[in-house]
Amino acid sequence: MSKKLAALTLTLITCLCTGCAVNPITGRQRLMLISEEQDIAIGRKYAPQIEKQMGGKIPNPAIQHYIDTVGQNIASVSHNPTLQYHFAALNHNSVNAFALPGGYVFITKGMLEKLQTEAQLAGILAHELVHVVARHSSEVISRQIGVNILLSAVTADEAPQAVTRVTNLTRQIISLKYSREHEQQADLAGLDYMVRAGYDPHAMIEAMQILQSQPDSVSIDFFSTHPTPQNRIAYLTEKIQTRYRNLPPLRTARQDYQNAILNQLHNY
Which residues, 6 or more positions from 197, have their beta carbon under 8 angstroms from its beta carbon? Predict the structure, then answer.
């Protein structure tokens, strides 16, 4: 048996023993070691831990409502609109955004301070939302942490040793690194989600340019888990020019973002 055929046979056997799932973004099947129910269990378990480690939610219901409204608007036009999504703004100075399996999306105070419009916020949230919908987070967790390790902590008790273990795993989740293929899917599908939700797609490029233009003294944590923007800006620009070139003016909402976010963040 050739090596190629042996590898294919092993993949098929593994799929039968574990499970394959269709990526709704690409329509292709891929090996998936975590079920959707386990996605939700992982998100439910680790979301409070992430909030705790990242300074908690910004204690402003109006800010949280604004972030959630933008996020839910995008989620409603995604490939999985029936999943229960949770969007939260964290009171942390890092410049970052990330997602957990099961519908949990986070954005930091530091990131919110860098953005300038609601459409740019929508671009960041749409990108992270694709990671959830396409189950990239689950794929990366399977590879970088291990399913059994993560799930064993989901059902662990509250003993000090178990709490320490969950805390350490949470730090690993925050620093998960996506592949370039994942990032390109998140960028391009996120662009589509933005447009469907009524936002100007150029804002995703603007957000990347804003982050890219920060002085070297500003640490962009987003770039530690997401590749730097140069090539990403090129293929996003190409897609906008080909697919969305003749769009009517779409929502940017600079003043709304100023009022709802930037005018409020200085209090925290």
Answer: 73, 74, 76, 77, 122, 126
